[in-house]
Amino acid sequence: MTGRPPAPVRGLFRFTAPRAPREERCELCSAALPDPGHRHLVDTENRVLTCACDPCAQLLDRPDASGGRFRAVPGRYLSDPDHGLDEAAWERLRVPVGVAFFFHNSALDRPVALYPSPAGATESELEPEAWQCLLAASELTGLLRPDVEALLLRRHEGRVECHLVPIDICYELVGRMRLRWQGFDGGAEARADLEEFFGHVRERARVPGRNRP
């Protein structure tokens, strides 16, 4: 475990710091954006999230646009209730807290493990064996789209939740925890916010291959 802010995502910290309320605008064409609900693009060269209107997102999220530099963050949420991750598998991940997310970084050409902390997104060294354990434990790992989706895990009350989510909500979670964290364990406000966040994820997520009731 490194305990240091990862270089590839330092540019994303601007999304986790407190900001005064202001009108959101597309960072590419300056068009006004709906609040909430606008889209994000991942700038794979500079490792930042970019707020975008729908036309800009559709224009740039193409292999022949900007050399593939921008990738639109999709909106799908998936869950795997039948995964094989247990307490022993979690220990092999070497994550010191109960929440972590994993994504494939195209610039580094490897998976990256991050977790929320009072300092922001913090990288945990991911051993190859631990990543292979994740690959074997959940089908969601093989469905991840590089740079724009993450495998979100939470260890809570003796079990592990496993979700595939858009990468931008992972940084939203980092920002929320950074703002509300108090003391050693985060405090009651941070824990309540975490419950609310995962409740939202569960509501939106579907299980691959199953239809909603």
Radius of gyration: 17 Å
Number of individual domains: 2
> What percent strand?
15-25%
Helical segment count: 5
The helix content is 25-40%
> What is the averaged pLDDT score?
84
Distance between the termini: 42 Å
Q: What structural class should be given to the helix and strand makeup? A: alpha+beta
Major β-sheet strand ordering: 4-9-8-5-6-7
Please give the largest β-sheet.
Answer: 6 strands, antiparallel
Low-confidence stretches: none
Summarize the helix and strand pattern as letters.
EEHEEHEEEHEEHH
3D structure, described in words:
By secondary structure, the protein is of the alpha+beta class. It folds into two domains: 7-72, no CATH class; 78-204, no CATH class. Helices cover 26% and strands 24% of the residues. The chain has five helices and nine strands, in the order E-E-H-E-E-H-E-E-E-H-E-E-H-H. The chain has helices at residues 54-60, 87-93, 128-137, 167-180, 187-204, and strands at 39-43, 48-52, 70-72, 78-79, 99-105, 110-117, 120-124, 149-156, 159-166. The longest helix has 18 residues, at 187-204. It is globular and about 50 Å long.
